[in-house]
Specification:
The relative contact order is 0.10. The chain has two domains: about 70 residues, Arc Repressor Mutant, subunit A (Orthogonal Bundle), CATH 1.10.10.10; about 45 residues. It is about 85% helix and about 0% strand. Helix 1 crosses helix 4, helix 2 crosses helix 4 and helix 3 packs across helix 4. By secondary structure, it is mainly α. The two termini are about 20 Å apart. The protein contains six helices and no strands.
Length: about 120
């Protein structure tokens, strides 16, 4: 998946339901299901050019919304922070096991790892 496809797919998650139903469906099929313009045109019973126009309008709107609200950008930054927390918890657990085992530290690390898993599956 190209960077643009990844970004547009993420933007659809945040702002997609604010598009018109035709724009949303065309963009979702194109970016999330990897359907061709022709396949989408057949499914939506419109021309291939109509599908392309709907996708282009959706892209412009999605990028405009992201420019103003930055939900996708903030989400990606938070995922990186959560991954850093996970790595630090793994390091603490490794040090605890190799230097001086503490059941309390192990339980805390386990709680952190479970919280990280919940955060990453939102």
């Amino acid at each position: 998946m190209s960077v643009k496809n990844f970004v547009v797919s993420g933007l659809l998650d945040f702002y997609g339901r604010m598009l018109t139903p035709k724009q949303y469906e065309a963009a979702r099929c194109y970016y999330d299901e990897d359907l061709s313009l022709s396949e989408i045109a057949i499914n939506q019973k419109i021309t291939r050019q109509g599908v392309r126009d709907a996708i282009k309008r959706a892209e412009v709107w999605l990028f405009r919304m992201e420019e103003k609200l930055e939900f996708f950008k903030k989400s990606q930054e938070n995922k990186k922070r959560v991954e850093t927390i996970r790595k630090k918890a793994e390091r603490i657990n490794f040090i605890n096991k190799t230097l001086s085992f503490s059941k309390e530290i192990q339980n805390c690390v386990q709680d952190i790892e479970e919280a990280v898993d919940r955060l990453l599956t939102y």
